[in-house]
Amino acid sequence: MSDTAAKPVVTRIAPSPTGDMHIGTARTALFSWLYARGRGGKFLLRIEDTDRVRSTDSATQGILDGMAWLGLDYDGEAVSQFERAERHAEVAREMLEMGKAYKCFSTQDEIEAFREEARAKKESTLFRSPWRDADPSSYPDMPYVIRVKAPREGVTVVKDRVQGDVTFKNDQLDDMILLRSDGTPTYMLAVVVDDQDMGVTHVIRGDDHLANAARQMMIYEAMGWPVPVYAHIPLIFGPDGKKMSKRHGAVGVKEYQAMGYPAAGMRNYLARLGWSHGDDEFFTDAQAQAWFDLDGINKAPARFDTKKLENICGQHIAIMADAEILSEIEGYLAAAGEPALTSQQKERLGAALDCVKGSSKTYPQLIEKAHFALVSRPVDMDEKAEKQLGSVSNGILEELTPHLQSASWERDALEEAVGRVMEAMELGFGKVAGPLRSALAGRAVTPSVLDMMLVLGREESLARIGDFMRISAQAASQEE
């Protein structure tokens, strides 16, 4: 089936600001973004903030921040559903005037009594209002809700691009409430009116909304509006095959930023979580936009795999521009509540990226590998590095220092200087690199000693070696 539409594609994401932005919401937003961007269409953001008790400004900001971190740019301004309440009510009243809806005066006690009687008779508890076809002259002077007149016979078929044709028996659809007795619109009404007014052509959302589609279609048909193309995507499961939740670890978007995953890697992994393009696992945004279509979405739930996420992220870090990495690291540190880098640390980290980004899967890993570039003198040593202290290490560094002092600070020259010491002292590279590694980084596991010296420069490298030799001499004298 072709994804080409006669009119421009318009998609949307419509999260509720009642908590952290869920990773599943992020994936739905990504799919909607890819589909629109790949077709020159529009991608819109609507904040469904009609739940005034649970909706918060901080959650709304969290949605905006999550979208910004993921790089999912949207067209125009974010729309507040709550601010459009009068428009929603206007549609409900219009349906009432057209005879597509009706006033229902049944109280909650009456509705519950109806359901108790139905349960006793083992009949359907679907509420059948006695006011559906009542004469307006019989209306009492009391609060009422406005209900849609749902079809009672036949079937409603949701033509879904992922799930296929899904059939619902109309006798199982209730006369859902459109407008509450206090005049506020329900979610089901607001969603349809907003999608229509925003020109949404394709609704991509979780398959937990599939049944809602059948009910929402009643409003589209009553108003004579075109029904959008539906694509209900499976939920994300944890490794145990159950719906992704806190028991599986992080589920909020901001948690993944705080754990140091690159946004490009996150987009790549989420795109592959329930959608496929042949056997391609690693791809760029441009490729994803060109390839993404609704037919490639799987019907079965996808399982979140942290190892696969890390592998994809590592590949993205390896090809990212240094400036982009530095910018994202600043965002990561802020999200993780870590201190910001100083200007000197930024400069040295930028110089160190070439020798650390190719083997890092997350930003914490990268920062750990670049530890040597971020610390200041005197460099603290870990337990393994301290084992290098002593007269043997000092002898090696005393032999090496004059060669480094006279060498031009280039890789070949530094490698030659180390080679001369190896030859003169009849030592293997590891024996020379051990104390040098501890002196430069205070760690026993580091990038190449040659890379570290090039990043740190002549003055800093020699100063660190000098510091180490003084500490080493003190350790040696204590041994005596």
Rg, alpha carbons: 32 Å
> What amount of the residues lies in strands?
5-15%
Helix coverage percent of residues?
40-55%
**Overall 3D geometry?**
elongated
For this structure, what is the CATH homologous superfamily of the largest domain?
A: Glutamyl-trna Synthetase, Domain 2
- Give me the secondary-structure category: mainly alpha
Helical region count? Answer: 19
What is the annotated CATH architecture of the largest domain?
Orthogonal Bundle
Low-confidence stretches: 1-5
Question: What does this protein structure show overall?
Answer:
The protein has 480 residues and is mainly alpha-helical. The chain has 4 domains: 10-79 and 188-235, 3-Layer(aba) Sandwich (Rossmann fold); 91-179, Glutamyl-tRNA Synthetase, domain 3 (Alpha-Beta Complex); 246-371, Orthogonal Bundle (Glutamyl-tRNA Synthetase, domain 2); 383-479, Orthogonal Bundle (Arc Repressor Mutant, subunit A), CATH 1.10.10.350. The chain contains 19 helices and 12 strands. It has helices at 23-37, 57-70, 85-97, 108-120, 187-197, 210-223, 253-258, 263-272, 285-291, 306-319, 322-335, 343-356, 363-369, 371-374, 383-386, 391-406, 411-425, 429-441, 449-479; strands at 10-13, 42-47, 79-80, 101-104, 145-148, 155-160, 164-169, 177-179, 202-206, 229-233, 236-237, 302-303. The strands form 5 sheets. It has a 3-stranded parallel sheet, with helices on one face. Helix 1 crosses helix 9 (285-291) and helix 5 (187-197) crosses helix 6. The relative contact order is 0.09.
